[in-house]
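Researcher: I'm comparing several assemblies side by side, and this is the next one on my list. It has 318 residues spread over two chains. Same procedure as the others: predict the full complex and return the structure.
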Amino acid sequence: MSIEAQLLSVLQKAGSSPRSQRDAQSLALELLEQLGSRDAEGAGALVVADATVDFGPAGTSGNFAQRGAKFFLDLIAAFPDLRMNVRSIMGDSETAVVEITVEGTQGADFLGIHNQEKHLDLDLDQAWVITASDGKIASIQAYWCQNQLYRRLAVKRLDQISITG
Amino acid sequence: MTTRPSANATKVVESFFDAYRTHDVERMVDLCDDMAGFRYVPFAVWGKQRVIRGDGKVNTIGKILWTGMIESFPDLTNEVTKIISGNDGNVAAEVAISGTQAKAWGSIGSQGRSFRLPHLFVFHVNDHEKIDNITSYWDSAILCAQLGRIEID
């Protein structure tokens, strides 16, 4: 099945399912859609407050209310034209694995990386593992290469993240 | 469209990591289709005139990278922490890979340090129970920090 057909199938299921019955794949797609729409509140409404989040490359892990919500806000603030493009999605009712490309132009500091006002473009392939329980997101584990992000945003050394070249 | 029992695809993936753990690269390759696609998303070696990326086929770039990794980290091992099976041969695996560096790996010179790093692998297993696509994600910044390299290529 093509990725387009997979996405359509999952989205149709999401649209027709009561929120309490939403599975991990439909929740994952809705989360990414909300983030791409710069709606941190809408994204946060899909996640239980004590969900475990691990955005490891960003050094952000813990529960959603304390760490994850801020990460979403920072991401949206730093990239005003943020786009979360889904490349593939797979999994079962409880766990979704979604491969995405995160794109945007830096408009504010992000993870300690200064905004140089050079309109540096982010174009970063990532994969998120999202679990669901009782129709809400119960955990998010994100995988990406922070060195690729640093390279895009002109950081030269791991010990000088805030000094860009 | 054929729907395969996900258990078979999962077993193929488990066998792949068993072979990787015993450094049996030939077995790893044998578990893959001859034309299997290969993409190690973070992998890049930046030369003066070109960048070598971990993007191609298992039989070419994949085999070379696995062999080089084992040479550079002679105690290389892996721990599969979670396997997620979808329909139609899709399997993802969260895997902790670890090892101690004995020689240069890409642009990372050996300081004799060790690493342990979570990876996500996304596989597709075909009707013949062969892996026909591998994509892997990890954070090279953490890998470099653990191995003592602070420059970003």
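Model: For your comparison table: The beta strands of chain B are 32-46, 51-57, 77-85, 90-100, 114-125, 131-137.
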